[in-house]
Amino acid sequence: MTNDPRNAVLRLLLADIRDAFAKEGGAPVANMFAEKVAVEIASADMVKALIAIEGRPWAERGKNGKRGKPLTPKKLAQMLKPLAIAPDHLGSGTSVRGYKLWQFEEAFSRYLPPERSLSSRRIQELAEWCSHQAYWHYSKNALDAGALDAELRAILRKEVSPWHVEIELERVLTSSRLSAFPIERGRFPT
Length: 190
Known about the structure:
The protein is mainly α and 190 residues long. It is built from nine helices and three strands. It has helices spanning 5-25, 29-34, 43-51, 73-80, 105-111, 120-136, 140-144, 147-159, 165-178; strands at 40-42, 88-89, 97-100. Strands 1-3-2 form a three-stranded antiparallel beta sheet. Helix 6 (120-136) crosses helix 9 (165-178) and helix 8 (147-159) packs across helix 9 (165-178). The longest helix is centred in the first third of the chain and has 21 residues, at 5-25. The protein is elongated, with a radius of gyration of 20 Å. The chain starts with a helix and ends in a 12-residue tail after the last helix. Mean pLDDT is 80; it is low at 180-190.
């Protein structure tokens, strides 16, 4: 892809589609590719997910990319055609058409930077930090109000892509609940 503005829009579209698959699959796309997870999204649902993203042009795509009507399944298919990605039947014996994650593997790896996700070690460090904070620094009422979750989200926003914050938050909280490691004083995230 050259520096043509249409290619910038296509990269943005691919990034947003990757995010939609990550949200649908509940994990970073790279993990789903590695584990051969089959994720499918109907064309209409993909369009809804894209239109719902604030600050993106999908809610007002018109002819030749000018302001106009929202993105449609047909327009999405046209935009993906140069990448040889087309909607296909989802499931057997159904007329619903959509996209399968595997169709995007080459395009994601070729045109997008790698996803930022936390290592298992970093997840464990944050889980230990959460356990420590919950025990020593927060009252039950503050924990119930989500104060620790908010602080953890703020840390995650600095370390992962915005669309992965909730995914990584869930990984940390799950690890924190399962943690068998003793709390170590002085180990705080930076």
